[in-house]
Specification:
DNA-binding, mainly alpha, homodimer, two-stranded antiparallel sheet, about 60% helix, elongated
DNA sequence: CGCGACATGTAAGCCGTTACATGATTGC
DNA sequence: GCAATCATGTAACGGCTTACATGTCGCG
């Protein structure tokens, strides 16, 4: 899937400018794009060339011009087609996994520190998302149904981060239990430093 | 993070060939790379040029040659540095979100169908992962600790898919409740505007 | 007078993907 | 003989990111 369908989806709720879309993308954790200009403005041009959007150039008396894009019937049809095609699976990528795979180079303490820092970052991220949700402006939504969907979508990322926190907590607990159950195996003698080679 | 660190991490458990790594990547849902040759062989060359790996060319009497890579002390040090640097947050991207944002073009029935198909795909994916886990060969792991970690990591993706299934179920339930509570409101047709309420 | 928000665009480059290409060995 | 697996590589391409570039407006 490319960003173009996401743009069509956002346009289905009403006309938007590139700048609008940019902010919607960058303020929503659920839309997996950074909201960078390059993609958005190029995509808008491409969509317009393909006849999927109308372009309405607005020139206020004093102020920067803005281009409002709206779905054409062809655009709505393209969106509908996509909506009814096979849905893609979600992707969860946690670079921490790769680190953990190489973590036999770490002492128990260093490993726990890594997990602790990860947990802390997750915690901060969740707080940040909640803050953003509080003062985030919302897209104009027509129907009750659409408002419900938008709300569920926007609650989801924080829930995923929280579930990751739980996973980390369980892993740390299991690791701690392992340590106490096999206390004096000379795994790695570390007192402060001296692990470097 | 690039794949090179992940390769270093995998090499920390012992020598591996490009082909080995390719399979580890493509058989593990947790390692977020497809296991394509292009990246792996290029990365191995790059790592070797940087002095982070040793290359051991094996030529069996009858059989294709294979190049076994091992971490050098510099490679271990680079891995350690990465392990103790700021861990990245996980990323969850669900293209279904983008579809749902555009889903006001769908009737209640079509929307539920979309969610139902999504749920079905998630279910199949989980089954596939469990099957893969059953007959998947494992990397040689030295320590009990590392075996524990590897196991927790490999269980995680299926858990994430299952949690997504729960999210879908709750959403469908909420949508159904919405329908029954407002039974015969004329639903928006394709060109509709302002359903009000 | 500078800064942040509004608004639109371009350039360069990384990272990842699929597909292509080659060749040996094992087993049906 | 043909397919699958082992094993190593290259070509073409697309999507996404950061950074660059330009200009207006309102506010302290």
């Amino acid at each position: 899937m490319s960003i173009e369908f996401a743009i069509l989806a956002l346009l289905s709720s009403g006309p938007h400018s590139g700048y609008d879309l940019k902010k919607l993308f960058s303020e929503s954790e659920a839309l997996p794009w950074s909201g960078n200009n390059n993609q958005i403005y190029r995509s808008l041009v491409a969509l317009h060339r393909s006849g999927l959007t109308d372009q309405d150039i607005q020139q206020p008396a004093e102020g920067p011009a803005r281009k409002l894009y709206t779905l054409t019937p062809a655009g709505r049809e393209a969106l509908r087609e996509w909506l009814t095609s096979e849905p893609d699976l979600p992707a969860f990528r946690a670079p921490i996994f790769a680190r953990l795979i190489g973590s036999d180079l770490l002492t128990d303490e260093e490993l726990d520190q890594l997990l602790s820092r990860y947990d802390e970052e997750l915690r901060l991220k969740v707080i940040g998302l909640e803050e953003l949700a509080r003062r985030g402006r919302r897209i104009e939504l027509g129907s009750e149904r659409q408002r419900l969907i938008w709300q569920r979508i926007n609650d989801r990322p924080a829930a995923v981060y929280r579930s990751e926190q739980e996973w980390v907590a369980e892993l740390r607990w299991a690791l701690a239990r392992l340590q106490t159950s096999a206390p004096s195996l000379p795994r790695r003698q570390e007192s402060g430093e001296g692990v470097g080679r």
